[in-house]
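This week, study the protein below.
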Amino acid sequence: MDIQGAVILITGASSGIGRTAALAFDRVGAKVAMAARRKENLAENAARMKSALVLPTDMSDERQAVAMVEKTVKHFGRIDVLINNAAAIIVSRADEVRSEDLLRSFRTNVVGPVAATNCAVGHMRRQGYGHIINVGSPGFMIGVPLYTPYVCSKAAMCGWTRTIQAEWADTEIRVSEYFPGYIKTDSPAESGYGPVEQDTIIDPDQNFITKFFTRPKTPDDVARQLINLVRKPKPLVYSSALTGLGSWVANIPGKRLSIARSMAIAARKRLGLETFGKQPPVSR
């Protein structure tokens, strides 16, 4: 697809991956609509762009998610690409997770994107072309400790993405899944344990396997890959070969548990949390 003049709607565009992608698409000539809750951040982005539409939107509200799409079409006359990037990231021990946190994660990370996508594809079908890109997470395959709401909702998003890929395979709608792996961004997580740094689950003393699979990429790396994905749609793209390899390793229970266990130990150490339950005796 020729990006020059294409209309691209990006959610979660106030910071992190979304903001960097919005600026990058603008630089290569796309018409960009940016959606997020923080209007002031979107306005700062727009001031640096040639052709941008600011859409203050809470993706946990289905009506706002649909309105975001309609406003994009009204302003630009069409919508070519919808990038579902917004996500609620809530840190909580699995035995302390609250139902309201789970529900908010699912509303933001799954329900809102579904509503926006179903609205967008109606316009895309009338145009004769459209592309949905869902920014997922391979973290659900590992079972990232302390991120239960996020991990569960991203697993659901993956299931939905692959379902619509199958249902729309022979239509004018392209559907892509993008797995970014560990990306170092400024997007904050919500936590009842105080400030949580993004590298909380990463410890320099972890085993080789864990350190090997947690080398961070940058939002600029992701932005370049998203631009390439719009130009040449694919069903699934990983941010790196390591991310793809890590997803494959996650299917090996022993290796997966080794990686996730090291993350859990690092997170408990950093946040000062007690170990859950009694530890089994060490075999001698």
